[in-house]
Write a structure and sequence with these properties.
3-stranded parallel sheet, 9% strand, elongated, binds zinc ion
Amino acid sequence: MSPSRCIVAVRRRARCAEALTAEPFDGYSLGGLWVGEPAAESHALVAADTALLPADKPRYLMGVGTPLDLLEAVAHGVDMFDCVLPTRNARKGTVLTSRGKIVVKNAAYAKDNRPLDPDCDCYACRRFSRAYIRHLFATGEILGMRLASLHAVAFMVRTMRQAREAIILGRYDAFHREFRERYTSGEGVMPATRETA
Ligand SMILES: [Zn+2]
């Protein structure tokens, strides 16, 4: 989106927010974002939108699902999310961990006896190794998709719970920075599959 089109979008969304907040709704949703524009523009529009919405009403951002995008939106005052991304990716063998994404179905994990995420206490991480879950994907066993999805939901719920606790403690900025540093560190992730987003 060009700068001029971005400004037009901000103005149009501001008019929409003005009309919506004139009505006594219980909360307000934000949508039409992360549909192909650069993430920085999406975040700028979230910031512009939330600045116009009542602070005492819930804000719900639709269809945004990466941990880093969620935490950035929380920093702008968004309260709720929903998105298919974590479980859709999990069903395809890409798993979120506290140190970034791993593609667990890759051959690199065939002998990796660590859990999907060593920092996770979900059912899948407590009981099964990356090697076993990779085997399930390789053999087309649906249990692989189910375990990866279960972990994905646990990871996202835990991340949001940690964010809420950090807000209550008045240390959200520090939590956000620490999470981003760990998530993009790639530590514990095999170099061949290291990713940063
Ligand atoms: Zn887990």
